[in-house]
Amino acid sequence: MSLTELRPASHRPAPPPKKVRTRSWLYRFDNKTIPYVFISPFFILFGIFGVFPLIFNGVVAVRNWRLDDPTLTGWAGLGNFERLLSDEDFWNALGNTFGIFILSTVPQLLIALIIANLLNRKLRGTTFWRIGILLPYLTPVVASTLVFAIFFARDNGMANWFLSLVGFGQETPLDWRAQKWSAWIAIATMVNWKWIGYNALLYLSAMQAIPKDVYEAAAVDGAGAWRQLWRITVPMIQPVVVFTVILSTIGGLQLFNEPMMFDENPQSASGGSAHQFQTIAQLIYKVGWKDLDLGYAAAMSWALFLIILLVAGLNTLLTRRIGGDR
Amino acid sequence: MTKTYINRAPQDTGGTWLTYVSLGVVLLFSAFPVYWMFVISTSTDEAVAQIPPSVLPGGEFWTNANEVFTLNEVFFAASLINSVIVSSVITLATLFFCSLAGFAFAKLRFRGRNALLVVVVLTLTVPSQLGIVALYIVMGKLGWNGTLLAVIAPGLVSAFGVFYMRQFIAHAVPDELVESARIDGALNMRVYWNIVLPAIRPALAVLGLLTFVMAWNDFQWPLIQLNGTDFPTSMVALSDLASGNYVIYRRVLAGAFIATVPLIVLLLIGGRQIVRGIMEGAVKS
């Protein structure tokens, strides 16, 4: 067979027929099989380490699977899930996760929008500003959280000092880790710090794709800069807003690093002395690798998976609805 | 000047002094925690609790760094080497496998191509972190638990990488170039190596930087695998450094700062590429 049959679009002369005949099996192999060889590493590796564990997780969740006692196996049925429903630690962690999630997502995306709007102008040093706001995104969460842990220290912490500067000084300094609300705010601050710049760049990129005549047309109505942002820019970049809402839902509900490192003793994975800020991802880690109960940890992972699906879906609807009304 | 901004697109409007001041404040907030990490890592114990906070570096960096490196149970030097190994292997493998698959999806014809590409896009949405319990059991069956292999293996490919490479190659490599090389008798591997790879260097830089940063900062899975071993990654070593009843902050932050420096260097060298990668990713998704 000749190669010209396979590549009819070519205008080049075919290679000498002799060469083709002696190596034709090789070319056939190269045409038919090599494409699959090229894509196979992805499918094999992702299958083994990505998809299979997620499915297998469902099997582990309905079995007894303990690391400390391998003899205790067998089907648990829905036992792990029943236990979940009456597990105070789980509901507490779920509440914490949602509390931190809301305190971080809403301000994060709003501030990112405003910063993106600032960057979406004719500026000197465009690249400098863009790279600058990405510094938090690159900084390891483990490292930055250690800094924030000192900011939010009870004694001589910078956050308390700042509060006293603006007139909110307390008799006894605020112990940020002690209460739920204050610990949530501290952790949400860390999450916001890390992700605002990143989201601002996502918004900026979408803003720059908006055709200029959209703005020119709206100028007739006499829209000011602020109204321009909310009336024209935000509705125009709505798909990216939905995308960032989904991204921060997936990320926020799996929050692990910040609450881990904010703890006075990170290795305990307890999320504070009374689990004030223990998240679900942290609880999964504790149940699986401190309590050594993998079956129950797998059940929790599945529950979290369902919750993420649900919340991501709800948020998408909500964001669409809010944007669509304008 | 006062009202002209109203009828223009924001992109055409110049920044006022207020724009620059606001951006300056944003930048200050972004940089301060990292800068303060550096300040404390160069200071004595007193600086941590100083009010108003100390904002100038001291001269104790080498003392603090030396303490971090000589702590017996933390293995900090080894952890940095491990992080370099893990992140480099993951980055190189991701670049190779993803560009190879991206090339096949963009330029080669084979049965089921479109369906398989849809599968790749669908896997983009899989939060594989939720499978960690089962992944741990898989690694146990392979006998890899507690080794660097277990940390590296799940990061070798990424669905985002394949998709990103496919999009880039589809635009950056002309069909005619691939076809004429094939007519001249070049095998697909040679086309990939001699034509595709040189043409997609910018995309390799972007994906490489993003992958390296992610691998370097990864914490949960390395913690599960390497906590308590003699060869942690630097993030696991840091969590070890910050645990215990008596935490010395200048020492902890010296370690944190050392583990952050490689990324600051990357931002300085490749900031432009990282910005572009994030912004392009937004448009595509």
Under CATH, the topology of the largest domain in chain A can be stated as MetI-like fold
**Helix-strand makeup class of chain B:** mainly alpha
Question: Quick one: biggest sheet of chain B?
Answer: none
Instruction: Compute the number of structural domains of chain B.
Output: 2
The rounded Rg of chain B comes to 24 Å
Family (chain B): Belongs to the binding-protein-dependent transport system permease family.
Pfam family, one (chain B): BPD_transp_1
Subcellular location (chain B): Cell membrane
Keywords (chain B): Cell membrane, Membrane, Transmembrane, Transmembrane helix, Transport
Topology:
The complex is a heterodimer of chains A (326) and B (285).
Chain A: H1 3-6, H2 17-22, H3 24-32, H4 34-61, H5 79-85, H6 88-119, H7 126-132, H8 135-138, H9 141-151, H10 158-165, H11 180-207, H12 212-218, H13 225-236, H14 238-253, H15 257-262, H16 280-289, H17 294-324
Chain B: H1 17-41, H2 45-48, H3 61-70, H4 76-107, H5 113-123, H6 132-142, H7 148-152, H8 159-172, H9 175-183, H10 188-199, H11 201-217, H12 220-226, H13 234-241, H14 249-284
Helix pairs in contact in B: 1-14, 3-14, 4-8, 4-11, 4-13, 5-8, 9-10, 11-14, 13-14
